[in-house]
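Teaching assistant's notes for section 4

Start the section by putting this record on the projector. Ask students to predict, before seeing the second block, whether Putative N6-adenine-specific DNA methylase will look compact or extended. Collect guesses on the board.
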Amino acid sequence: MPQFFASTARGLVEPLELELKELGLKVTDRYIGGVFFESNWEGCYKANLHSRLASRILKPVLDFTAYQPEELYSQILRHDFTKYIKPTQTISIDASVNESKMRDQRFVAMKVKDAIVDQFREKFGVRPDVDNTNPDLRIHVRAIKNQFNVAIDTSGDSLFKRGYRKEVGEAPLKENLAAGLLRLSEWDRQSPLVDFMCGSGTFLIEAAMMSMNIAPGINRKGFGFQNWLNYEEETWEKVIQEAMDAEKEELDFKFYGFDIDKRVLMNAKDNAKRAGVDEVIEFKKESVATVEPPVEKGLIIVNPPYGARIGDEDNLRDVYRDLSFTMKHRFKGWDAWILSGNKELIADLKLKSTRKHFVFNGNIECRFLKYSMF
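Reveal the predicted structure now:
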């Protein structure tokens, strides 16, 4: 049975493993950057459509050791890449190299490309072109200490690109990271969520899609595997229909987003509408200093700015103090989860966290902290 690799952000591997198991997929191993699983192609399609936490679903095709360009070239030829696309279609090579004799990843990408297009030329007399923007077949090459791993990308665009977000705030949170943090919070999917600094609405939209059982990939334009010769259209249509049949039409609770930027709130409303969850999210222009509980009880989740992304750290200290005051004095009895990439600013809350997770928001190491307002 084919083996696949679901990649994700650092810190989300365990919840991704749980998610894949919930999808009925057989997890075989875990790695620092993701999870291996075994499945037929229907399972691959399901993972692409339903995984909220994965960045990509890759299919490993080669593992080998290479020290010289000639070795790399000949090892790539061991796999038949001509079975995936026609020679008139396009490819791209995504290479990363660490602690290897061939140190230039652009050179590695070029050598891999040469081997693949030569394979096509020898078989068909013509070769595929390179398209780094929207290729039909994306090949990932990773080299660490001269050990090469080659995989084909079944996803196409990264899976965090759900298709609903056209406009974002100044410091957007990737959709799959937002979904992963919701998983880590152990929110029950049956109670209100409140975000004091909702920005483009990512936390709330992802949460609403979870509660309404809307597949995260349902609004995407397409997936990489749809461009391939082995694409099973009937199987894909079955997976899509099952996902649509499982959606809920309404909820008996709502989600609440606040922000001081009117323009960003308009974008958030548009994003929610494209995601099909605008009926269950209420957005309101309000400062974190003056937010009142919109319901009797729920869960707070906030991604406040932390300097590394937006601006002067000193200007944010008052924001964190306002956040702390609002939670302590207006939201007694609530639990709150806060994502922060700045230890100094989080100290300005002057609150003691009861739980902690380490995750990466891009290249920024962050703490995802739980606070209980007694």
